[in-house]
């Protein structure tokens, strides 16, 4: 019986890692100082695990930016555009791939499975792979030199790395796979020679819906590694879901297998009950949730461990968190302002390590010694569940009565469209923006000054009003058709609403890494979500008083709020989504009653919440689409509902989009060369589509020709009557002059199109 972790947060309790990294980029510290600091953090992270009595300490999960990028550079998979030709990879090249440089844009970044972490996508261009650097070995030796404990190096596995590599030409595939297996073999045999007893191989790809072909390839990879890896034992890590090919996976030639008994609980447990578990292998049971911030139900987990112990060979059960703890904040001790009933229910990475120790010892020696811990654990959950924040009668009654609420608009789209046009009198190819305008230094300063008490609320609000006034004037000058107030009062599209709704709480320090050095601090939804006061009314209505053109109300959708928060686990996520949706429904009503007749509900995170397993998609889509409809269906036919999604594969997502029944959906179309919009054609989509005709992520001012070309491409798929013209996302990161120049050309594009048709 052993405890271990898959990985531990590298950002540091006070984001020291991030600060050092950014200081290095800003040339405030030398490379030598940078390396020294990083080593200090690495060793400190090991020390925390040792102090928490973790038996097998994991190293190699520490990174200077991203672990997939680490592998690519360790193996020499460096795209030609970085002009690399040497025997080693400098930090300069490494960070050029991560962030781009003058000569070459950065590598693509995308979401790591169903988490909010983003990794750098490996690009194979036919290079010859070789093992340039053995990072796990370096970290293994470093740890051995400093600590006398069991050290288990970890590495993301060959199957995951192979299947996530971008655009390998079909003809290249076999050679790429062969080379990749070879470098992994070499890496592992070096670890064996250095004396690593166990090596952890992380294969989250096993938790996705793999084809039988993929599973065959994986089997071949592991058969080969088994003959070449040397004497180390492999612990094959699966996480984020159950493994789909259970029998194949447990029979791979490895010494141990880790299964996720949190997110893949039902399937993994029933597989192990039905098919058993190999007598000669270690089972490492992921029973502490590595994806959330809640305490582990100790008794329940202990019961599960007792059962698992009976299903494996004696001494062949290990326990661990369900995945790397990098997805949770570091330490709860830095929070001092949380309500006690909530605080007693929270466990960040360090607290999860303590739970791991308790569970291990309770399983080994009986739970008597831990009577108090178990009792407190049970009581804490009970207290919070029974507390007023979770017992909002009004909210719960509305949820119970939901079957009485229609999720459909009064009339179908064709009818609504005419009524809306009668009211709004928009030209063909109407123009609008996605919501935010530049968050200038002054806008940010206004907010921090209010926070620090340097200015009063009135002064703050007056500044916002001035900004709104300025931007309404700009928009009128530009002759945009549907205007926005500009979102100057918002830091973040989720935080803003979370702060105004009951049931949310904000931490001081609960950061998690999102990508590179960028960290986010998701709000915690811990109680019933309840609308209390209008959240967006003042700014929107104020903007509307300044113009006769329609001003669009701007809200964040229920699923985006849900997916970008830590969410209570005592009720299903679908119910929390309904609660948020009901609150938004009220807000929309309030806006409508105040005369706001165009309202946008953003859902950029709808698609990213899709479960890893294809068979779970329908369930998620049903309740998430329903939540959007619950929020938006309460309005009159004349009120026009917009939605916006960005960075999303639309090809297989048209049916959910159709089901939303938004009057207008704005999407990114500028970079996809007609690809995205084609999906709308195949699906015979009839509602309106806002074409994101230029890329707001770059300071570049787009040319009219390019934007016309985007529209022309799109007109192959949808009719001119369906088209709106807009940028592809909010403009908050742009400068004022860039924004004005780009929008002027965008409006001219629309004018040209109107003349032409
Ligand atoms: N309305 C938001 C904005 O303009 C939308 C942001 C987003 O799609 N990520 O900033
Ligand atoms: Zn967007």
Describe the structure in brief.
This protein is α/β, with parallel strands linked by helices and 757 residues long.
The computed structural class is alpha/beta
Which ligands occur here?
A: glutamine, zinc ion
* Strand coverage percent: 5-15%
Given as residue ranges, the uncertain stretches (5+ residues, pLDDT < 50) are none
The overall pLDDT average reads 96
By DSSP, the count of extended strands is: 21
Radius of gyration from the alpha-carbon trace, in angstroms = 27 Å
Tally of contiguous helical segments: 27
Strand count, sense and barrel status of the largest sheet are:
8 strands, parallel
Strand order in the sheet with the most strands: 1-10-9-8-7-6-5-2
- Helical content, roughly? 40-55%
